[in-house]
Amino acid sequence: MKLLPRLAATTAAFALVATGCSSNDTSKSPASGSLKGESVQVSAVWSGEEQARFQKVLDAFAAKTGATVTFSSTGNDIATVLGSKISGGQPPDVAILPQPGLLADLARKGSLQPVDADTRANVEKNYAPIWKTLGTAGDGKLYGVWVKAANKSLIWYQAEKFSQAGVRPPKTWEEFTAALGTLSDAGTPPLAVGGGDGWVLTDWFENVYLRVAGAEKYDKLARHEIPFTDPTVVETLTLLGQLWGAPNTIPGGPASALQTKFEQSVTQVFGPSPKASVVFEGDFVATNIQKETGAKVGTTAKFFDFPAVKGSQPAVVGGGDVAVALKNSKGAHALLRWLATPEAAEVWARQGGFLSPDKSLSSSVYPDETSRKLGEAIIAAGNDFRFDMSDLAPSAFGGTPGSGEWKILQDFLANPADVRGTATKLEAAAAAAYK
């Protein structure tokens, strides 16, 4: 959940991220050779290419400090895996969590170690205050260092299709729906929706809701301080229902969208036999496009900001991954301290497929223009970042396939006219989960 400036960064925002991160960096970093003989175990959900890129970050830490660092992937069910390790008395030194809600749960159970003074100083120096807030649990203690960020407020499109239809990237919801209508009239249903993955639909809901209700109400709904039957929720569902239910908008209609996984929706737009011309999702779409289609990001595949609703300010919903210490070990604290420096962020940023929330990192280290723009947008958003609401919710409501919000919004996609019934179902599920 994240709010604010556009991807075309202002001069001031660019200056903020363009200051070098090596010679001018005064972050508190572990001393060379300071961890010889120490072992550090690290766990995260990452596998494959993402794991390989993070491994280079760990390798750089090991080379600097002399520590022996081992990584294990938990798979997507990280809460269960870590819970078992904690119960068995063998947690890793450090875990990288994909949800602030999981950080809060582990802190509440006494399973996390607060960061040390040097790490706190790095966080306060290198991050906007919102990231410190997101790494702080209900007891007021700072536990987390945000390693990775995501911008989930982007709409990707086939540049050629837009050009052929005479459509320009829209800035408002009205312009967006009008553009989809023009594209539809040109002969192809324009909007690919990966409704087979419930999280895609929660991202749709959150982006529209943030623009309908504003940041303050977004925060309240995320904490379930207002019900999902609130008029702002009904208005959000109404807009989504009108969009998803519009004739000739989604290839094959909502029923087909429910059989379409996220990766397939990207291929529907940018693959060799496109069925649509627009797909909504975060910055990670660039990786999917490059790996799975023949389109070129920045030329044939472009993006624009999620459109404003009723004159709303530019807004961004985002995500990220936060490092926490599960052991009060020298190695755990040293790794968190290092991960809170631009020195660590640069190792991954240069490889691509990564955006850092570290404002001291120079955007010049990103390997291409698209990554630089996306990275600058993360920093430009600053303290107006709003984290993905479903990641803030109890997992029973906001993060479980086939149940809770995921399933309710999938049912809504199947029947986009059922606005009030959907709001009632969401509230019932939230009330049960937030007890």
TrEMBL record:
PROSITE patterns: PROKAR_LIPOPROTEIN. The keyword Cell membrane does not apply. Residues 1-17 form the signal peptide. The keyword Nuclease does not apply. Keywords: Signal, Sugar transport, Transport. This is Multiple sugar transport system substrate-binding protein/alpha-glucoside transport system substrate-binding protein. Belongs to the bacterial solute-binding protein 1 family. It holds the Pfam family SBP_bac_1.
